[in-house]
């Protein structure tokens, strides 16, 4: 159930807008220009100002060219973005070569393009840019013009200090790149998971909307169809039985009557008479969820009991999808049996799913609910199963919580083994027909 969204969606979250890179480069151009003017004119330090400003001007002209020939909303490919960020590293390295190499306090700006890549591009391209920045830093540690200093006197850093600066720059580059990439990747995964959830809900809403649309169409088509049927009936009385046109009139009447029968069925789809079909007891809900999962070699035991009359709810798509996903995962990891039980009292309704599989690993229990947590324990799911608790569990949890449910997960107590998932609702939420998605979650008591 959507455990692998990369095969379901064409995601573009790693396609940077060209305008973003242009704006960042303008910021760099402004900062480099200000630094050169302050050092050369303000402080009077000697440096090859012509060559330095040529590098800055080249970046400015590159931005002007991109702005003119490309729309601001253009999203460029990863390769194009990587090439532009590689240029920024080389341009910054050129300025550092002219102004003292790693002895220049601005040497750590070599990390900036790599950080941009870590937050927006793939790990492969980020690694390429990180290697390029490391090579540039290594060259600058050995080959560079003297650091600008007053009076024309040279300022040479001790070799040990230069090595220390190189180590600090490279290690900071690696740490920051990995950290930024992991944070951005988690945000992207969460966005993908939420998009998948919205897709599931939109599909269900679309199916519900088709019901109303069919009813409206039936009402609109009813009047002209009745007119056609009446006209055909009157025409049939005007022709003799042996007239060849009689068969055509009879065909029109029969097809009109068929269309009227179809429209009557469409009209009944959203009528109040269908309320009996939409209402279902908790035991019926469990059977509705279990039925598609029978016949896979795993025994499914069902029980339902409680205090008072059995709760009656609605045929809610979010509940059926969420419970179905939890049951599917239990079947994937079970050895022989999955137990599904329902308990209720005057205030709450609870549905529990137990399996006799390996159970949850402790590190997974702490992360369940996050997208792409896909391993239960040291064992994997059956070969014919679809996988572990990944994005599908995240979607199921989200959909169930939207109906007012709370999920509790634990491992079964020894000597039993396996996982135990319990889903509870306020009884008032279950018994509110047709309004499951809009329940006030505050009804749920801790």
UniProtKB/TrEMBL annotation:
Q: Which GO terms describe its molecular function?
A: kinase activity
Question: Which parts pass through the membrane?
Answer: 24-43, 49-69, 105-121, 128-147, 159-181
> What broad class of enzyme is this?
transferase
Q: How does it sit in the membrane?
A: Multi-pass membrane protein
The UniProt record lists the EC number as: 2.7.13.3
PROSITE patterns linked: HIS_KIN
Query: Reaction(s) catalyzed by this protein?
Result: ATP + protein L-histidine = ADP + protein N-phospho-L-histidine
Q: Does the keyword Kinase apply?
A: yes
- Cite the Histidine kinase domain residue spans from the record: 216-429
Query: Pfam family example for this protein?
Result: HisKA
Name recorded for this polypeptide: histidine kinase
Identify the keywords attached in UniProt to this record, alphabetized: ATP-binding, Cell membrane, Kinase, Membrane, Nucleotide-binding, Phosphoprotein, Transferase, Transmembrane, Transmembrane helix
| Cited CDD domains | HisKA
Has keyword Membrane?
yes
Name its cellular compartments: Cell membrane
């Amino acid at each position: 159930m959507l455990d692998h969204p990369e095969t379901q969606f064409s995601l573009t979250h790693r396609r940077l807008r060209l305008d973003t890179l242009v704006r960042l480069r303008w910021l760099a151009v402004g900062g480099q220009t200000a630094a050169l003017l302050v050092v050369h004119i303000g402080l009077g330090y000697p440096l090859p100002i012509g060559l330095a400003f040529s590098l800055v001007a080249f970046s400015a002209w590159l931005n002007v060219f991109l702005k003119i020939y490309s729309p601001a909303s253009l999203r460029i490919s990863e390769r194009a973005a990587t090439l532009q960020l590689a240029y920024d590293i080389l341009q910054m390295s050129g300025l550092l070569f002219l102004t003292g190499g790693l002895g220049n306090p601005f040497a750590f700006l070599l990390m900036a393009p790599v950080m941009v890549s870590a937050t927006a591009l793939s790990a492969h391209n980020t690694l390429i840019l990180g290697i390029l920045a490391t090579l540039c830093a290594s060259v600058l540690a050995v080959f560079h013009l003297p650091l600008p200093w007053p009076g024309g006197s040279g300022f040479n850093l001790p070799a040990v200090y230069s090595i220390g600066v190189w180590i600090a720059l490279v290690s900071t580059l690696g740490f920051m790149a990995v950290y930024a990439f992991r944070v951005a990747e988690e945000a992207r995964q969460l966005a993908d998971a939420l998009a998948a959830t919205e897709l599931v809900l939109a599909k269900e809403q679309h199916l519900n909307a088709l019901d109303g649309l069919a009813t409206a169409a039936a009402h609109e088509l009813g009047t002209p169809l009745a007119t056609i049927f009446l006209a055909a009936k009157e025409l049939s009385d005007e022709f003799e039985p042996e007239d060849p046109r009689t068969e055509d009139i009879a065909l029109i009447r029969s097809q009109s009557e068929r269309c009227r029968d179809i429209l009557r069925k469409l009209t009944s789809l959203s009528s109040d008479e269908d309320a009996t079909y939409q209402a279902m007891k908790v035991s019926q809900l469990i059977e509705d969820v279990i039925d598609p999962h029978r016949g896979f070699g795993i025994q499914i035991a069902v029980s339902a009991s409680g205090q008072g009359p059995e709760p009656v709810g609605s045929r809610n798509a979010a509940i059926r999808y969420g419970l179905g996903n939890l049951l599917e995962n239990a079947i994937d990891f079970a050895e022989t049996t999955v137990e599904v039980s329902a308990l209720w009292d005057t205030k709450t309704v609870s549905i529990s799913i137990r399996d006799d599989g390996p159970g949850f690993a402790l590190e997974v229990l702490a992360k369940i609910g996050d997208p792409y947590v896909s391993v239960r324990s040291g064992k994997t799911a059956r070969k014919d199963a679809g996988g572990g608790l990944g994005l599908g569990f995240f979607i199921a949890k989200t959909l169930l919580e939207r109906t007012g449910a709370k999920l509790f997960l634990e491992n079964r107590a020894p000597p039993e083994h396996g996982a135990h998932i319990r889903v509870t609702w306020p009884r008032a939420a279950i018994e509110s027909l047709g309004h499951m998605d809009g329940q006030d979650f505050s009804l749920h008591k801790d």
